[in-house]
Amino acid sequence: MEILLDTNAVQPSPKTKYTEATIRETPSELREGWTKTASSKEFTFSVDETSLLTVQHCSTSAILPPGLELITYTLVFAPGKPVKKTVNLTVCSSEGGKWVFP
């Protein structure tokens, strides 16, 4: 799973901010003129149902010029029984942004 964050929409602040992002099931393609480089930004993540879902961070890249961050995760969903439940993935930036994905 890849998450594309518009980090330009989030300014460092002591308050929690939410912004929209895109969750993709396949690797994203760069538009003409955009470049993908390693990112120096730091993100932490968590899920609220660790018994249902395990998340492993793979990589973080910067997409320029629009100033987007591409975070790639591996998700392991193995509940062992049928379930119908919403699981939230929370991604936090060291600069103060917070994104929640149900």
Question: If you had to describe this structure to a student in words, what would you say it looks like?
Answer:
The chain is 0% helix and 48% strand. The chain is mostly beta strands.
Task: Describe the secondary structure blueprint for this structure.
Elements: E1 2-6, E2 21-24, E3 35-38, E4 43-47, E5 53-64, E6 68-77, E7 89-93, E8 98-101
Antiparallel strand pairs: 1-2, 1-6, 3-5, 4-7, 5-6, 7-8
Strand content: over 45%
Distance between the termini: 14 Å
Question: What is the SS-derived class?
Answer: mainly beta
What's the alpha carbon Rg, rounded to whole Å?
14 Å
The coarse overall form would be elongated
> In DSSP terms, counting alpha (H) and pi (I) runs of 4 or more, how many helices?
0
Poorly predicted tracts of residues: 10-23
Entry keywords:
single chain; mainly beta; 8 strands; 48% strand
Short description:
With 102 residues, this protein is an all-beta fold. The protein has strands spanning 2-6, 21-24, 35-38, 43-47, 53-64, 68-77, 89-93, 98-101.
